[in-house]
Design goal:
Elements: H1 2-29, E1 50-51, E2 54-55, E3 57-58, E4 64-65, H2 80-87, H3 95-121, H4 130-175
Antiparallel strand pairs: 1-2, 3-4
Helix pairs in contact: 1-3
């Protein structure tokens, strides 16, 4: 039973970790949505530096593109990932990626919950009344007394056998 309880505790710990990770993912990676009639709350795009008189424009992959490449001796504009690393907050996911990740996280939470249910259902005592559990405990106590009496008799028999063996060994030593 202790093994089942340990498994149950581990499963509950895993469930809490999954829940925390899911909430953290939702909080940090959710895509921004426009609400009709409301001003946008999405963060403003990062201003890109001016190089050689032209402003670099980000491409769809987040890298800056410049008409003739970066000028020698200057750095390219930081990517969105680099900017997220600098600010400490990850950038939002694309809606399709975010929804797929949510689906996977939800599936993991449900599977973990089902594992917890199986462990709970395998615990002894569920589905039986208090009287039947008390009766079963009395039966087990009676069995334990019988087994303990058998153990004590076997212990006495072992001690007697050791004494007899010791007597045989001492007589054998005298003959030689």
């Amino acid at each position: 039973m202790a093994d089942r309880l340990t498994q149950l505790q581990d499963a509950l710990d895993n469930q809490m970790t999954l829940m925390y990770a899911t909430i953290n993912y939702i909080k940090t990676r959710h895509p921004y949505a426009d609400i009709p009639g409301q001003p946008s709350q999405a963060p403003e795009p990062v201003a890109l530096p001016v190089i050689n008189g032209t402003t670099s424009q980000p491409t769809s992959n987040g890298h800056s593109s410049q008409p003739n490449g970066p000028a020698r001796g200057t750095e390219a504009a930081p990517t969105n990932d680099e900017q997220a690393t600098r600010t400490g907050s990850p950038r939002p996911e694309q809606p399709s990626t975010f929804n797929a990740a949510l689906h996977e996280l939800a599936r993991d939470l449900v599977l973990q919950e089902q594992q917890i249910e199986i462990l709970i259902n395998s615990l002894p005592g569920l589905g039986s009344s208090e009287e039947s559990q008390t009766r079963r405990m009395r039966e087990l106590e009676a069995e334990l007394r019988v087994v303990e009496e058998e153990r004590l008799q076997a212990e006495k028999k072992r001690e007697a056998m050791i004494k007899r063996l010791g007597d045989v060994l001492t007589r054998t030593q005298r003959v030689t």
